[in-house]
Amino acid sequence: RRELSFRLQDPVTSTAAEFKPNNAYGLGLGLALFDIGLEFVFPMPQMQEKEALYGNTRATDLQLNILSRRWGGDVVYQRYKGYYLSNPDPPLQPGVPYPQRADIVTENLGINGIYSFNSKRFSLRSSYTFADRQLKSSGSFVVGGSFNLFEIDGDSAITNPFKPTQSFTSLDFRTYALAPGYAHNFIVRKKFFISLLLAVGPAVQDFRFRDTSNVLHKDTRVNSYVDFRAAIGYSTDRFFTGITFSSQSRQVIFEDIRFSSVTSTGRILFGWRFPEKGFLTRSVWDLLPPWGKKSADAD
After folding, report:
1. Which residue has the higher pLDDT, 147 or 299?
2. What gap in Å lies between CA 142 and CA 183, rounded to an integer?
3. Less CB within 10 Å around the terminal CB: N or C of the chain?
């Protein structure tokens, strides 16, 4: 399940209104061949009772990922229309619809990358794509980078219901982030594993927002960027299964509002590794020019 959510928070009291989409879960198949991963995911039908409670979200979510033992990267495009307030106060009784904003539209375009400094003992892809199998516990310092363009708009003012003075009609910002961190794979009996990655760093943001008086404001500030990934599972020479979660969050502060956007992906996987023989042992990296093979060979 992929999700693009956002939060309006009071910087002083930390009281936050969290808005989430009611997008469908996906079911699909994946294939890793020649060190390239392909995944085909199709949305599952939503129950009418769920739409009555949380509203309807129209979502476009496209992602291209590549992940080796040393480095990884992805390109993401998301467009969501339709959100609901997930934490109303007081809490709702069972069966009561959540406050909904069918008019709110968000767009997110991002390019993210991450690099591991200990690829000989630590594998990024062993816990997230299962293309490798790590046999001993080990970790690595990592560094992540991100360029992101986010936009949000609505037919009426986007308001924090816990503090109505925190309102705006549109917002867009560009984020340039660099985040150092650490990742570790904990291996138990060579088959069970727990993987954690956390990278936190500064983010330079150019942003514009339009207030409720239709006045456009522009500013540039330094805020924060967080990349978090976790996985738990079971992996043998042939069979593997696991649960993976990744999240990238960015926040921008303007006037008395702390606005955060969060892109997250949760996956449950079951898979099988086939023996690599003949042409199956080839890699896409074999097509690289000689100057590009050195770093690829380390993977």
Report:
1. 147
2. 7
3. N
CA proximity to 151, closest of 168, 174, 182: 174
Q: Would you mind telling me the total number of residues written for the chain in this entry?
A: 299
Q: How confident is the model at residue 182 (pLDDT cuts 50, 70, 90)?
A: very high
pLDDT digit string, tens, across residues 197-232:
999 999 999 999 998 888 999 999 898 899 999 999
Which residue's structure tokens are 């990349």?
A: 227
d(CA 136, CA 127): 13
User: Which amino acid does the sequence have at 9?
Assistant: Q
Instruction: Please tell me whether the overall predicted TM-score, pTM, comes out greater than 0.85 for this model.
Output: no
Q: So what's the pLDDT on residue 98?
A: 95
Q: Is 294 left (phi over 0), alpha (psi -120 to 50) or beta?
A: alpha
Secondary structure letter of residue 95 according to DSSP = T
Peptide bond into 164 cis (omega under 30): no
- Unique residue bearing structure tokens 């050195």: 294
Secondary structure E strands in the chain: 2-9, 16-20, 26-33, 36-43, 58-67, 71-85, 100-116, 138-159, 167-188, 192-210, 216-235, 239-254, 257-272
Q: Give the Cα separation of 81 and 76 in Å (integer).
A: 17
| Contact (CB, 8 A) for 4 and 263 | yes
Token digits for 5? 């959510």
Residue 133's pLDDT is 86
207, 254, 197, 204: which is closest to 225 by C-alpha? 204
